[in-house]
## 1
Amino acid sequence: MNRQANSNQEYVKLRVEDITSFSSKKFYHLRLTSPGWNWKPGQFVMLRPNKWTFDPFGARPFSIADDDGKNLHIYFQVVGKGTQKLAELRKNESVMVWGPLGNHFESDPNVPTLLLAGGMGIVPFVGLVENYPNPKNLELIFGHRHDIGNYPYNLMARKILTWNVQDVSEKDLTWLERALRIKMQGYSEDGMIMACGPRPFLQLIQQFALQFNVRAQVSLETRMLCGIGACLGCVVQNQQQENIPVCSHGPVFNIQDVVL
Amino acid sequence: MQNLEVDLDKLKIKNPILTASGTFGYGLEYTSFGALNKLGGIITKGLSLEPRQGSSGHRVFETPCGIINSIGLQNIGVKSFVQDKLPNLPWDQTPVITNIYGNSISEFEELADYLAGQKEIAALEVNISCPNVSAGGMLFGQDPDLAGQVCQRVKSRAGDKPVIMKLTPNTGDILGIARAVQDAGADIISLINTITAMEVDIESRTPVLGNVTGGLSGPCIKPIALRMVHEVCQNVQIPVIGIGGISSARDILEFILVGAHAVELGSINFSRPDISFQLVNELSRLTRELNIGSWEEFRGMLETQG
């Protein structure tokens, strides 16, 4: 899955249509004017508000949650200086955006597919579920730390079978682990898995995927500078011990190909 | 100014804007953001004889108005660059300059030897200033004798290719190094590479970079770069290319005012991938606004008292 889909990349100025916070002030839904791209779930953008001077210095990477032709939808959680500043964006301000970047999930509507999302790892699945031709063949397990109302979960729960586990305590984590083990086993015969979330979550999924021999794709979250494979700041190691840029060779990888 | 052409003695470029090594990939990554042939020149990511995997662990960290990186010269190797990337670059329309890195003087020689035979390559930029590799790297650039030796040996193998020596700011004797490479036959000097730096996380009590230290770049280092470029320009006769935190047409003119012939744009390429292309237009506009009619009447014309 090393296709480099950079032929249709664009650098565009987009306008903020709307920015809303979820139940806590740490989670946001940003709606931008649609760039009208031909994109696929799993791809991402680099985003930098025009009003930023040099601090924060760089752009920030975000999964494309969806683009309905009218709006490009981005979801983010405030985790540092950059996302804190992004939360201060207001309607009609402009942002520079480049994308669609990276590769995408390889989906097959005829194959039963289990989506595994941890925290903000749910975002790339929003558009996948929204635009999926055969929602009956999709199922989601969602592990999250913060209140469920902070994530675009309900959108998906309306369309496909979903399970959510809030992992607050050690016991919850054991429960999540058990749920993953049982569910993933169920997909080993003729199904496949798509996963996105924090590293420990993905490590667990990788372990079960190899154990039960189930086909799985994983989308990696990393810090990025350029998003286009130029700086080599976001590498992950593959099984041949080569450092592979996540932005241009991923973010989606076959789970057995990368060292997590 | 209509005509932004610059004559670096052995190297002629259509405008003074080059892309700094390590911040512009192999050039092809940026084709969605502008026409490569618009640039004064493209300087590649540092190339070694064999492919290198670079540093492990976290490699980049953002700081106020800049970034610290420790990529560790990951690259595909010089042969793969020449075979797979070079044919796709517009080398017949704008100079493609290979930045080269060797673990030893003989590796530098071998690189020069190989590239001297590639007609598509316009010049060599010799990296004696990388702070993120264990062997060689910055060491060559911190000792005037070693810097001179590397330069002389590369020069002897580079055929008619102009040799640009890229200097590190991580030395107490930048002039000694600059003079040494000039005496050893360097055609051009470029400076500065990144400044050794680090950041730590007080919660995890660990360095933020896998390599512990890295190189600081971006607008925060521009005043330091400007000071060093000024100092070197005052003391050498060969053309100098200024590098360090440049992000606007105004910045470019500042470096030219202190004596640089051309500049390289670095970290800003990551924040605004179209900027190298845009600044060609902006530079043309700004020189007109300031009534600068030619580079000769402006370059090095800083008025200092005494």
## 2
Amino acid sequence: MTLFPSPLVGYLLVAALLFAIGLAGALVRRNAIMVLIGIELMLNAANLNLIAFWRFGPRPEALTGMMFAIFSIAVAAAEAAVGLGLVISIHRHTGTTDLEKMNRMKG
Amino acid sequence: MNPVFYLLAALTLGGGLAAILLKHLIHAALALTVAFAGLALLFLQLDAQFAGFAQILVYIGAVAILVVFAILLTHSDLPKEGVFSRTWLAGLAIAAAVFAVLGWAVLASIDDIPQQNTTPLATVHDIGNALVGRYVLPLEIVALLLTAATIGAVIVAMHEKERPR
């Protein structure tokens, strides 16, 4: 089972595919919650890259990639809380979470 | 590459794909949880135990629950026009182009990619020491950010009184 020349390449390709899936979800869906789900998938793909580079890169004992991923997880949690709060607030004001109906500022 | 990696990669990518394709939001949230679990297992496979368990706690324990709460609070029927936006083809094309660029970048730099294969030792003890030593300033900033974000989320989502217009 040696499809990839080095294990890091496999992880990087999985992360790239997951990022593309998240981006497609954020761009293609109409519901605001689904867009947030797509953004979460993209953030997770970036975390997978950080951890994979930490594992296979030089000087893993410095823990840089690992720390970056842990802080990124914390920031993503804050982003999810604020984003979903905004969606709930918009739903209360306009009665919809459909992004194509939120066109009040459209010129 | 061992077969476990392929299994976990298939689980993660399948979960992510199902999350953006499923019509019902609750089903999508469940598929998202599967993708998060697959990612946590990939982290464990990469010898990053702390990050893997943090992923389980934060994403499966908090973010997935938050998404489910938001879905229940904004309960809406399936839109008649379908769940995908009118510009879905352009979005799909952009995502495919981004994947092509990322994949090309990875495959083009295949000779320069580092391949150390010594299992790094990252005990919770080491991580705690690094957090209060070298990374103490980012830690404090993240603490402030989390406090501000939770208060901000509550204020944004709080029920406000009807104002006369």
